[in-house]
Design goal:
By secondary structure, the chain is α+β, with helices and mostly antiparallel strands. 26% of the residues lie in helices and 28% in strands.
Length: 820
């Protein structure tokens, strides 16, 4: 926010320089990023002077240039200037840029030099409006009135003002300081505690008077929640025209473009008091009535920027008897503004609910000076003062007469907030004992009223413009910033609580455990944005767009929805790395996924159908062993991914009997398997479909696994990983060559075997697969190894044969498997 140094001094008399003022404001929490000397016209018109064209003849070598001689009143020979303007003539008073002058035309800086144009020397330039910054016309040079004095500096002729502008970074909670008077009020509190001379004066409105008691526009508020207070005033017979220089200069210095005297005054009031206003053309207020209400869902409304917008049922509108005129606290309508044809105006000064304004502004992607202040909290008890101040200034510069009383709809007055402040807590939080009188003096300078005082506490009444002060700690923060952070001494002792381990929850501990395991296996952790492209979920059967959590106001089209899966972010990372010649990749990510369920929304209005779950994703591609002299090059495979999945589950406490792998058909995978327990699914893994890989320009196989981390934590909440001694009794290995149907998988064989013998069967592995000659059609041969072991004794042949017989019987019964 830009604050004019000279404008600030109109409310606060003080002796600090601009640099000292910036330092003082920074010390009290209004951080000032810079101090810049600035003029109402860029460059300050340095080097420009009023001259008189003495002679003007056609250029001998050009049909559109003229040779002129110009007297600039310096007592020397007239300047020879080649001019291309069609309207240049002898006897004119003009603005001349002498050699060395810098002109600022748009974003370009031009230095006037001595030059030769078509063989004729030129020692300057006769200027047009746009070349010196007083307008936009370039149709010809500026022709001044005959009474303009030759030799007068242009900056004096045009009354160019110079000032210092302080760039203040306002934090969201300090909206009370988002104005010149607000900054002056805070600076006055600092100067009082620093015992420096100062005088704060608020512009008086005692001279306000109503010219005509009867008449005026009536006001009706239909939604008091969204608009707790609405004040309005009618002024007839105003003269809308260009603003006076003092007003234009003030706005130009802080970076605002003057429009007309009425609009400029509302902007002036905004930056003087911090309270937004709006001026309506009474001619467009149908029915002579202003109604504050909402319009039906889907209503169309054209705003000042000529954009047609579709209104939400919760967008508060300022309406006339028939139509909407303005989006309350956000943006005016196309017909609500004041133009040169306006004769009567209605001034609005209101207090709108910050939440309503913020939501409306976000819905429509609007961010205005008005919404910036209303959504952070204006002062509900300042609306009438602002109206009177604006009305008096309008009468001063635009004439007119005030018709009717001020309409002030304020059904439930918002009182100053009461806070009890214990002295002991002040000293405890600040870390220094501050004298009670100093505390009371600071509170008085901050306009915080002391309602009651005891030996140990103060009962305070905080003004309504301090929306950020709601608790005693907020008051203490205010006391400290005015007292001065640098005035609190550092103690010579250090108090600390050292611990070898930062307390963390179980989820974080186990996440770290698995991360370390994966890192030791060659994986790198990635972290992708939870916001992702909507296009990933369009025409997606597995992750439909209808289940996406959409953003109301996305930063871009590429960040329009919340992710439902970690898959696409990981593929983006793989594509990024492969494009930079990193081909052998092992990635993992812990991240949240987000879901919308319309059925759940109907059942639970509080949750609104939204849910959030944590997932673990694994991606591998390229080679697992790069080519070297010791080992051959080995490509990654889905079986390596499955091994990593099993290792994670084993580390989390799952036993092989608890986890079931089953084939699945999914558009995500060209071949995939689900991971589940007997109770619920955990996740899935497989080979990512070529159709998906093409969208990311990935030309190699990618193996992906995704597991619901929340489900894993829940399933293992009561399980413990226990370590046991290696058995003293030897394991026994037996092989079976099984003839089975081609559609039977090893996972099915493993599942049947584990159900057949739960105590002694320690391991099952597939070591050979054969399909081809000498086998019946539709059959294949699996060579399977079984490991048996008893932890308490050595197994004998009778026990082993009994177990193997049971396994063979069940395999034949359930899968049709026979021995070859």
């Amino acid at each position: 926010m830009n604050i004019s140094y000279n404008w600030l001094k109109e409310y606060l008399q003080f002796d600090l320089s601009p640099q000292e003022t910036a330092a003082a404001l920074t010390s009290i929490g209004l951080e000032t990023g810079g101090v810049e000397e600035i003029q109402t016209i860029k460059g300050g018109m340095e080097g420009l002077v009023i001259g008189e064209v003495l002679t003007c003849v056609k250029h001998p070598n050009s049909d559109h240039l003229s040779l002129t001689t110009v007297n600039i009143g310096n007592g020397e020979e007239p300047l020879k200037i080649v001019c291309g303007a069609p309207n240049v003539a002898a006897g004119q008073k003009v603005v001349v840029a002498t050699v060395g002058t810098k002109l600022y035309i748009g974003d370009n800086e031009i230095t006037i030099k001595r030059s030769k144009i078509r063989g004729e020397e030129s020692f300057g330039m006769i200027c047009a409006e746009d070349e010196i910054g007083i307008g936009t016309s370039h149709e010809g040079i500026i022709v001044l009135p005959d009474n303009a004095v030759v030799g007068t500096l242009a900056k004096d002729y045009y009354n160019v003002k110079s000032d210092f502008v302080l760039e203040i970074d306002i934090t969201p909670n300090r909206i009370d300081a988002a104005s010149h008077y607000g900054v002056a009020r805070d600076l006055a509190a600092y100067l009082k505690q620093a015992a420096k001379p100062h005088k704060l004066s608020k512009p008086s409105v005692e001279g306000f008077a109503i010219d005509k008691k009867d008449g005026g526009i009536d006001v009706r508020v239909e939604n008091a929640e969204a608009c707790p207070r609405y004040s309005g005033l009618t002024i007839r017979n105003v003269s809308v025209k260009e603003s006076p220089d003092w007003l234009k200069n003030k706005l130009l210095l802080i970076g605002l473009r003057p429009i007309n005297n009425i609009v400029d005054l509302t902007n002036f009031i905004l930056h003087e008091t911090g309270h937004p206003m709006h001026a309506f053309d009474v001619n467009h207020i149908e029915g002579n009535k202003v109604v504050v209400r909402t319009l039906p869902e889907g209503s169309r409304f054209v705003t000042l920027d000529e954009q047609e917008r579709e209104l939400n049922a919760n967008d508060l509108m300022i309406c006339n008897a028939n139509n909407g005129m303005c989006i309350a606290g956000v943006f005016g309508g196309i017909k609500s503004g004041v133009t040169e044809q306006t004769k009567d105006v209605f001034l609005e000064s209101a207090y709108f609910n910050p939440t309503w304004v913020r939501k409306t502004a976000r819905r429509h992607g609007l961010n205005t000076d008005s919404s910036f202040r209303f959504e952070r909290g204006a002062d509900p008890n300042n609306t009438v003062y602002v109206l009177k101040r604006a009305a008096m200034l309008i009468k001063e510069i635009a004439g007119g007469e005030i018709e009717g009383d001020i309409r002030d709809v304020y059904p439930a007055k918002i009182e100053n907030r009461e806070i009890v402040l214990p002295f002991r807590k002040v000293n405890s939080l600040i870390g220094k004992e501050i004298p009670k009188e100093t505390v009371k003096s600071i509170l008085e300078s901050l306009e915080i009223e002391i309602k009651n005082e005891t030996e140990s506490t103060l009962t305070l009444r905080v003004p309504t413009y301090r929306v950020d002060v709601t608790r005693d700690v907020d008051v203490i923060e205010d006391i400290l910033r005015i007292y001065g952070y640098n005035n609190v001494d550092f103690s010579n002792s250090l108090k600390a609580n050292l611990s070898y381990q930062t307390p963390t929850d179980r989820k974080h501990k186990l996440q770290t455990l698995v991360s370390e395991q994966l890192a030791a296996s060659g994986f790198n952790e990635i972290m992708n944005n939870s916001l992702t492209k909507k296009s990933y979920y369009e025409h997606n059967e597995t992750y439909p767009l209808s289940r996406c959590v959409s953003l109301l106001n996305p930063l871009s089209n590429d960040l329009g929805v919340m992710r439902q899966t970690l898959l696409y972010g990981g593929l983006e990372s793989i594509a990024y790395n492969r494009n930079r010649k990193h081909y052998d990749l092992h990635f993992y990510e812990f991240g949240n996924c987000y879901f919308f369920d319309a059925d759940r929304k109907r059942e639970d209005k509080i949750l609104s159908g939204h849910s959030e779950e944590t997932y673990l994703g694994l991606w591998i591609c390229g080679d697992s062993n790069p080519k070297n002299w010791a080992t051959p090059r080995t490509e990654t495979s889905v079986f390596q991914l499955k091994a990593h999945v099993e290792n994670i589950l084993k580390r989390m406490g799952f036993t092989s009997n608890q986890v079931i792998f089953e084939p699945i058909q999914s558009p995500i995978y060209s071949a995939g398997m689900s991971i589940r327990t007997f109770k619920q699914p955990i996740g899935n893994f497989g080979i990512v479909s070529d159709n998906i890989l093409k969208k990311f320009d990935i030309d190699t196989d990618v193996f992906f696994a995704e597991m619901n981390w929340d489900v894993i934590l829940k399933e293992t909440s009561k399980s413990e990983v226990r370590f046991t001694e290696i058995s003293k009794f030897p394991p026994v290995s037996r092989d079976l060559a099984l003839l089975i149907d081609k559609n039977v998988t090893f996972a099915q064989i493993e599942q049947v075997a584990k159900k057949s013998e739960k105590k002694l069967l320690k391991g099952i592995s597939l070591f050979d697969v054969y399909e081809g000659k000498n086998l019946p059609e539709g059959k294949k041969s699996y060579a399977v190894n079984f490991v048996l072991q008893d932890e308490e004794k050595t197994l004998n042949d009778k026990q082993i044969d009994a177990v193997m017989q049971k396994i063979r019987h069940n395999l034949q019964k359930e899968l049709g498997a026979v021995l070859r």
